[in-house]
């Protein structure tokens, strides 16, 4: 039997799972995904994520404001995140960070809401679940001074280049790899640099319902990604790192257990 996997990034509160969430969870378990970390991307989504965790015992979650949602953060959001984070199921602050690729929120608000959440993680001594796209330099500038006071941080859905990867590793970050690496159109660079990630710093995630691995055969009818497809991420990543899939899974699961404090 292959080792159990932990999907560290699932947007299970997404409405695309409303009709069959129970099945999605059962199929994930059958595919060898023992635990999932449900991503909180706004106050509402973080509350829903927590509610799901309280319903199913193999789920944990993050609480945070995604950069896309920074413009909508109410003035007391830090107070509300603090309250959410006091629940045992909440295991990291995030998803937070900067996304200058689409600027759904103004860069000013993104930077303010990000630095306030970094400060919150430091104050609560909680890990950080980080998002970054097309904003590496300002992202690093906000993050770096606080990292000493934060137990651990992961650059989720890492899609950067080798220079950025090395900077992340130098900062002590974990690297989250999604099905982006299975995409031969835009994931080739990530595939090529994956071998530079040390085994004690790597974790795997689907980012479902987004980023369906393009290596799934037979090709699924639906475009919706699911945690049950995590093995395809593991296989391609192991290939890129020229190690066997079981070894990779063993390390990613141990890393995720330590990072999110999952016992058993
Ligand atoms: Zn993200």
Could you explain how this protein is built, in words?
There is one protein chain. By secondary structure, this protein is an alpha/beta fold. It has helices at 21-30, 43-55, 77-85, 107-124, 136-143, 162-170, 188-193, 230-240, 245-260; strands at residues 5-10, 33-38, 59-63, 90-99, 128-133, 153-155, 174-177, 202-204. The chain has an eight-stranded parallel β-sheet with strand order 1-2-3-4-5-6-7-8.
In short:
It contains 9 helices and 8 strands. With 264 residues, the protein is an alpha/beta fold. Strand 1, helix 1 and strand 2 form a beta-alpha-beta unit.
Largest sheet: 8 strands, parallel
Question: Under the CATH scheme, which class?
Answer: Alpha Beta
Structural class by sheet pairing and helices: alpha/beta
Binned, the helix content reads 25-40%
What CATH architecture would you give? Alpha-Beta Barrel
Order of helices and strands: EHEHEHEHEHEHEHEHH
- What is the chains' assembly state? single chain
The coarse overall form would be: globular
Number of helices: 9
SS strand fraction: 15-25%
**First-to-last CA distance:** 17 Å
Number of E-type strands: 8
Mean pLDDT: 97
List key phrases describing it.
264 residues, alpha/beta, TIM Barrel, eight-stranded parallel sheet, 38% helix, globular, binds zinc ion
SSE blueprint:
Layout: E1 5-10, H1 21-30, E2 33-38, H2 43-55, E3 59-63, H3 77-85, E4 90-99, H4 107-124, E5 128-133, H5 136-143, E6 153-155, H6 162-170, E7 174-177, H7 188-193, E8 202-204, H8 230-240, H9 245-260
Helix pairs in contact: 2-3, 4-5, 8-9
This protein binds zinc ion.
